[in-house]
């Protein structure tokens, strides 16, 4: 078994500009186990949207912090690979609460990385002030330090996705790096030009979302991205296949080849 410390160190190393970590996001124990067994996979990441929907609740902290940590624990126990958890907004109203919750996540689940976002609650919309968001990143960093685990913090910048300015997005990204983030999850990089510009102006490693019709994975690697994830799209991929199979079987069609796929925990 690899220690939690070793997993954290490995997860950090895997965020390599030009040789990005590709994480096919998971949402429960069996999805984690199946993805972990795919050739070449070296680390896992959950997607909060998918985890929430698997529990029958909406995204944006529809789960309680206890439920979120329990879900992360089930995923982490299913594999020996490093796990980064989409920890949404930290499940707390202030930085101190974020720190306490992140410490619990590390100690109780065995996770070694987190995503933390700078948006406000879904009902109000918008983003936290830069100072507030940076303080929450700093609290997560302090929680990792207190446990002795060098938590890999992927700090999400929601500015462009919310209609904000490029300048604000870059200012936030650099503030979060200064506060202790390891990587910036920069939403809204929709083409090669925006990827290049972000890499030029942000003073650290970048992660982004991959999607059909977006910048190809090989090009993202060539440009210098350090991590590519897919969020709830991987759950959509699995559910689309399930729905197609249900349609075929209901219509008395041929048995799908994947119906014989073998799996176990």
From TrEMBL:
Q: Which CDD domains match?
A: ICL_PEPM
InterPro entries from the UniProt entry:
ICL/PEPM, Pyrv/PenolPyrv_kinase-like_dom, Pyrv_kinase-like_dom_sf
Q: Which GO terms describe its molecular function?
A: lyase activity
Identify one Pfam family in the record. PEP_mutase
UniProt xrefs under SUPFAM superfamilies: Phosphoenolpyruvate/pyruvate domain
* Transmembrane intervals: none
Q: Which domain of life is it from?
A: Bacteria
What UniProt keywords are attached to this protein's entry?
Lyase, Pyruvate
PANTHER family for this protein = CARBOXYPHOSPHONOENOLPYRUVATE PHOSPHONOMUTASE-LIKE PROTEIN (AFU_ORTHOLOGUE AFUA_5G07230), PHOSPHOENOLPYRUVATE CARBOXYLASE
Protein name in UniProt = Isocitrate lyase/phosphoenolpyruvate mutase family protein
Q: What is the lineage of its organism?
A: Bacteria, Bacillati, Actinomycetota, Actinomycetes, Micrococcales
């Amino acid at each position: 078994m690899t220690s939690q410390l070793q997993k954290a160190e490995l997860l950090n190393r895997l965020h390599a500009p030009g040789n990005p970590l590709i994480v096919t996001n998971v949402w429960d124990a069996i999805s984690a186990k199946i993805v972990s067994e795919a050739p070449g996979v070296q680390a896992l990441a959950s997607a909060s949207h998918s985890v929430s929907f698997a529990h029958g609740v909406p995204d944006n902290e529809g789960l309680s912090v206890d439920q979120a940590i329990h879900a992360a624990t089930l995923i982490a126990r299913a594999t020996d690979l490093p796990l980064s958890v989409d920890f949404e907004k930290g499940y707390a109203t202030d930085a101190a609460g974020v720190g306490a919750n992140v410490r619990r996540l590390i100690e109780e689940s065995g996770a070694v990385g987190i995503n933390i976002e700078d948006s406000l609650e879904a009902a109000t919309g918008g983003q936290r002030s830069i100072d507030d968001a940076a303080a929450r990143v700093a609290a997560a960093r302090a929680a990792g330090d207190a446990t002795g685990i060098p938590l890999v913090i992927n700090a999400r910048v929601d500015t462009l996705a919310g209609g904000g300015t490029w300048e604000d997005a870059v200012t936030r990204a650099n503030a979060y790096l200064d506060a202790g983030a390891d990587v910036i999850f920069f939403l809204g990089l929709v083409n090669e030009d925006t990827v290049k510009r972000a890499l030029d102006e942000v003073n650290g490693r970048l992660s982004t979302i991959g999607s059909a019709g977006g910048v190809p994975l090989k090009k993202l690697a060539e440009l210098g991205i350090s991590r590519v994830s897919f969020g709830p799209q991987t759950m959509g991929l699995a559910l689309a296949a399930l729905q197609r199979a249900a349609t075929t079987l209901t219509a008395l069609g041929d048995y799908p080849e994947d119906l014989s796929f073998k799996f176990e925990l």
